[in-house]
Amino acid sequence: MSGQVRLKGARKAIADHMMQSLAGSAQLSFLTGCDVTDLLTAREGWKAGERAIGVEDCLIAALADSMAAFPHFNGVSKGDELILAEAVDVSVAISVNGLLLTPVIRRADRLSLDEIAACRRDQAARARSGKLKTSELVGGTATISNLGLTRVRHFTPILNKGQLVILGIGRIEPRLMLTADGSVAQRQEIGLSLTVDHRFIDGDPAARLLGEICDRLTAIHTRN
């Protein structure tokens, strides 16, 4: 196939948004793996009890709870100024017909897993049918981007313009790990990628935020 393709319409608007994000921030990514064996076991129990909670819902909750624990990350930048937010509003990236939409789950740290799951499913369904309101696509303080159904384990997600944090979800893979008693066991590990705006967030606190996300994800089955 040959020819020329010109960016236009919604595709161009998204491209401009991404370029402005890259030009206006110092983006730095951190990569890790997190043991989700217990989460997957809990999810089977939830399914048996007809609770439709997915891995992405658990990650939204873990990110939101961690942002609440690191409130100086929860805000948006306006040039060289950081405006902190009281509510943790998580934007969830959804690919719809080649376009990337980011509907916002408001006050995600105050919602139960079931409420987060219900909100995400509703927004995803309305995004695909073109029924999302413009007001639902703005105002997030952090973003989550999911490539877990692909072969990608880690990537470097681009910040949603103005936000300080975006969490990228990679695939889940089996890994041999040492247990607490020193034995070796096969566990399930998910790849996570955290991009931050290095103008406002240094490496050590960013690494601690990613560690907090992993810790909360590991124990997510105990959250309501």
What does this structure look like?
The chain has about 220 residues and is of the alpha+beta class. It has a single domain (about 30-220), classed as Chloramphenicol acetyltransferase-like domain (Chloramphenicol Acetyltransferase, 2-Layer Sandwich), CATH 3.30.559. About 35% of the residues lie in helices and about 25% in strands. The strands form 3 sheets. It has a 6-stranded mixed β-sheet with strand order 1-10-9-8-4-7, covered by helices on one side. Strand 5 and strand 6 form a beta hairpin. The protein is globular, with a radius of gyration of 18 Å. It starts with 8 loop residues before the first helix and ends in a 6-residue tail after the last helix.
Offer a few descriptive terms.
224 residues; alpha+beta; Chloramphenicol Acetyltransferase; two-stranded antiparallel ribbon; 5 helices; 10 strands; 33% helix; 27% strand
DSSP summary, beta strand count: 10
The CATH architecture assignment turns out to be: 2-Layer Sandwich
Helix content: 25-40%
- The outline comes out as globular
Question: What topology emerges from the helices and strands here?
Answer:
Elements: H1 9-23, E1 27-35, H2 37-48, H3 55-69, E2 75-78, E3 81-84, E4 90-92, E5 94-96, E6 99-101, E7 104-105, H4 113-128, E8 142-146, E9 165-178, E10 184-197, H5 203-218
Parallel strand pairs: 4-8, 8-9
Antiparallel strand pairs: 1-10, 2-3, 4-7, 5-6, 9-10
Helix pairs in contact: 3-4, 3-5
